[in-house]
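The material for today's practical consists of a large collection of protein records. There is nothing in a record beyond a sequence line and a structure line. As an example, a complete record with its sequence and its structure tokens follows:
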Amino acid sequence: MDMSGILPYLINALLYSALAAYFWRTRWANADSPYPKAPPAQAYEHYAVLLPLGLHTVLLAQSAFGGHGLYLGIGNAISAILWLTVLIYWVGNFFQRLEGLQSLVMPVAAAAALLPAVFPPLNPLPNTELSAFRIHLLIALLAYSLFTIASLHVLLMALLERRLHDGSLPGMLRNMPPLLTMETLLFRIIWAGFIVLTLTLASGVIYSEELFGKAAKFNHKTVFGVLSWLIFAALLFGRHIYGWRGRVAVRWTLAGFLALVLAYIGSKFILEVILGRV
């Protein structure tokens, strides 16, 4: 891809980065500031996210939807997951206080917005004409996005807990809800992600039956997908029965997310980038 083709992706990444820098400067910097709280969120800050998100939408659509099918290589796959993550975050901010996530989401989205230009897709995905496959793909992207938000949220909680012990809180963390409230929201997100992940595995079985005549292929995607489901099922069980929270919740959430990443993104990275296959 020449420089003129990369430029829109670079602009998109810079817009996300500018928002990340703004939120960092206004919310996180000056941890020892005498002011008790960060400035309250403004409406223009919320709607400013639509600028890079809108450009991201256009660029992703151009890259993924070619004339011969759906192009979802490693670059487009990660970009689509983070696009959906930012969209869910933006919509969710109308209903829950997710303001503390913007400084974590925006830098990741900036990197993801560049990936279609760095790793352009070469060939379209097979079998995209099948309804079962399209449904499975859409649900899978939603599951990835929900667990991405859960992982960023749990990292924010871990940072808040650590800073509370240290006695040094940035303005943004002083403005966050109590840890118990954040923990309740975390498990709501995990429950939503777990339900969607269950639907992902179920739709995968239907797609496999339609295409291959058997419930599932035994491969790394199936193994890590089921492993991720088991980890999150154990976390929710432990939360309900034993009241798991704090560092236990952090470790199990990140372990489940890592298994989910290895199920699809990790395998695509090895095949497309390291081995050069498509």
